Amino acid sequence: MPEGCLEAKQQEEERQRQQAERKEKEARAALEERQRQEAKPKGLEYAGTSGTTWKIKRKKSEAPDKVDVTVESVQKNEDGAFASVEGVCRKGMIVFFATLVDEAGAASLDFSDRVDGYRGIRTTYRVNDESPSQKLIPQYLYSNRFFIVAFSAYKQRVEWLDLSTHFGIDELLLLDSPPLDTTWRIIVEVSAAQKPIIIQIPIYDDSIQELIQTCK
Predict the structure, then answer these.
(1) pLDDT per residue over 92-132, tens digit each?
(2) Which residues fall within 8 angstroms of residue 208, CB to CB, at 6 or more apart?
(3) Lesser CB count within 10 Å: N end or C end of the chain?
(4) In this structure, what DSSP letter does residue 12 have?
(5) Which residue pairs from 54-63 have beta carbons closer than 8 angstroms and sit at least 24 positions apart in sequence?
(6) 90-100: pLDDT as tens digits
(7) What is the spatial distance between Cα 68 and Cα 63, in angstroms, rounded to a whole number?
(8) pTM for the structure as a whole
């Protein structure tokens, strides 16, 4: 092929590649905007039907005119085993983690989905109305305590959580959490007993919303 024709072909291929990337970016932006518009009405509806109860704790912060807020929810399975789910604010990061125990409150559960070489377990994980997918969630401090999701109060996606910044532990965790402004629920299924434990986080529950607002 003559050099001029080859150069023209390469330019056309580059133009088509850039055009395809631009269309993909526009489609992704349109999807995220639709998700933002849908998040609140769907979230409010789900908060009223999830069947979860969230308690809120408030205490005065060291910072003037500021209150530290935490939320808690106990979510049981059919056998009485349960997840104690906690939501906290750490330096502009909203973090949820869960401690899983048996019906007597003991850390005796066998996590069949532990992954060799990884301090965590494999779960069935669902965001909003998306199809459930397999996702690893990392262990935190104890063998039965796990990070569920982390949100930035400034709405961007959280891919990594620096524990040294937020929890005083020298470790960096891969979380790949969704953006806060497009998320209205998180559902996580954990195989930890004869019956799985289902963890639900309704983002538009009143207590969780107060945690989010005070974390900004």
Answers:
(1) 889 999 999 989 888 888 887 777 767 788 899 999 999 99
(2) 54, 71, 87, 201, 202
(3) N
(4) H
(5) 54/205, 54/206, 54/207, 54/208, 55/207, 56/207, 56/210, 56/211
(6) 888 899 999 99
(7) 9
(8) 0.80
